[in-house]
Amino acid sequence: MAKERAQTHDYAGPLRRLLLIVVCAMLLALFLFWRIDSPRVEQFRAKVVDRIVPNMDWAMTPVTGLVNLARDFKSYRRLAEQNQELRSELRQMQAWKEAALQLEQENARLLDLNNVRLDPRLTFITGVVMADAGSPFRQSVLLNVGTRDGIVDGWATMDGIGLVGRISGTGRNSSRVLLITDAASVIPAIIQPSGQKALVAGDNTAAPVIDFLENRDLVRPNDRVVTTGDGKVFPAGLLIGHVVEDRSGNLRVRPSADLSRLEYLRILRHHGTEAITDPGGVVAPEAPVAPLPGDGAETDAPETGPQASAGDG
Length: 313
Prior knowledge:
Number of strands: 12
CATH topology of the domain at 123-269: Thrombin, subunit H
Radius of gyration: 49 Å
Shape: rod-shaped
Helix content: 25-40%
Largest sheet: 6 strands, antiparallel, barrel
CATH architecture of the domain at 123-269: Beta Barrel
Mean pLDDT: 77
Strand order of the largest sheet: 1-2-5-4-3-12
CATH class of the domain at 123-269: Mainly Beta
């Protein structure tokens, strides 16, 4: 048995080498044959390809699947990158959208201010509402314009549509607006088209009360309420609001101005208004500068009395 194994081992090595040489020779011959440029050889090559290649599709299936899988993975990776880019662009677009909406709202409010039709003799200055200084007992807002801008106590203020109030207290860089809903606000008004005169008195609610109405039967809901100009505080013809009736049957004015969302106000330069000496106590006016001694502001009063009479004698 050991002798047969030894003989088998002696023949295995030469056979493998012989087989390797034969295979290399066949491959070399096939290479040389494939390189021959002859019509007959070309026909033979075509027949070989037609015979072998279709039968080798089963062997190419795994390779094709791996290639398609690699392509799909690259496509999925590219889609993931594009998805991240689109998410980032979407966040930027949302931020731009919010900025555009804010600019659109601000532009609409400014356009409303420009659309107000006023007396050509009236000029105006636009101020920005800095803070709401109102309370349950006082309805007012603060503006970023003051005496440096020529603001005077008593001037009327409007938003894009209707009357908001009047200047009540000025400082150098700010001023306070007393709203028409404040309890201290009383405005002479006329109701159109009936022409009835009344007083629009604030009571710290959203709708001021109509007092001292001449003939209530001539007034209807939704009638326009405008200023009369009486008292020389407000110019005539400024829209206050429209007539409404509350649950108790009292007539009130629904302001045309949106008092809950004030951002820009138009201060009317009406130089014919009555001078208001009380600044309101919220924004104090600048203290007057006292004259210095020796400036000639003080004069000696003439002497009277017995000594003056004696001196005359």
